[in-house]
């Protein structure tokens, strides 16, 4: 019997196969090194855990639908007022909502390729078309090419900086150009899931640059990466104006972020020192892993995130398969050519040593 409700055909999302996503968490990650999902290897801030625990006791009550306390905390640091901040069950939920807010059937959305697929999933759900624009060879979004892909039907342009799965960042001039030249009839979405890892090197300050934009914009950020809270599912969207937030409110489910998650996120955001230490440790390990992989002859892309994307003279998919056989999950990418590349999350120190040793063994065996 045909299903009475038409189900949009959404392309398969580039998620790792199920055996690479074991449900049992465990600290540390047990026998399987989970270096495929860009999770943090460390636990959330102890203050966040305590806040979640305390909130659990009030679990008979719905959470604050407006997330007022968390919004106030984020407003104080970002300068974006609470009436322009929206929360999601992870920033992934908000990326789908960006498409739902901006697009109708037949519209177009310009996106880099490859990139994080969730905004694209939202685009497909609305019946709009994705216009894919290849990344630059260094793994950053190609702003000039994306601007050239805009047509009168374009209603959304998605930038991901640092880009997943490649790790590179947009420079200030390019970001400024996108902010200026994306038409006001088009929602500019800037996904900054790895924003906290990109700081410290004179990187562009997106929110300051956005002050000059006349059209609508959204910047999405998350507690899943630098705040080590992927399992609690909290993301937020900073919006150009209150009207845009009202657009999100129309489609958002009631109480979409749980009470313990909201409490944990607020405590984690306030414990900035813990987040900074987690980021510093991750960046230090990333650079150690980079040096090790370069010694093995890998080409390592510039990374401003908690992962490295690497290429070598051989099949990345075959290497990922071999590593999986040794209990190490990494993500193989079909980019930029037939050999592809590997995306390796920065794990705990021993996981990084393990992945390096396993790769070295594989290269010797090949
Ligand atoms: N954007 C990017 C670029 C990501 O890499 C991810 C997660 N890997 C997300 C958004 C979504 O993260 P979350 O839903 O956990 O906030």
From TrEMBL:
InterPro entries: Aminotransferase_I/II_large (IPR004839), HisP_aminotrans (IPR005861), HistidinolP_aminotransfase (IPR050106), PyrdxlP-dep_Trfase (IPR015424), PyrdxlP-dep_Trfase_major (IPR015421), PyrdxlP-dep_Trfase_small (IPR015422). The modification N6-(pyridoxal phosphate)lysine is found at residue 225. The gene is hisC. Belongs to the class-II pyridoxal-phosphate-dependent aminotransferase family. Histidinol-phosphate aminotransferase subfamily. Keywords: Amino-acid biosynthesis, Aminotransferase, Histidine biosynthesis, Plasmid, Pyridoxal phosphate, Transferase. Homodimer. Its cofactor is pyridoxal 5'-phosphate. SUPFAM superfamilies: PLP-dependent transferases (SSF53383). This is Histidinol-phosphate aminotransferase. Residues 35-359 form the Aminotransferase class I/classII large domain. Pfam families: Aminotran_1_2. Its EC number is 2.6.1.9.
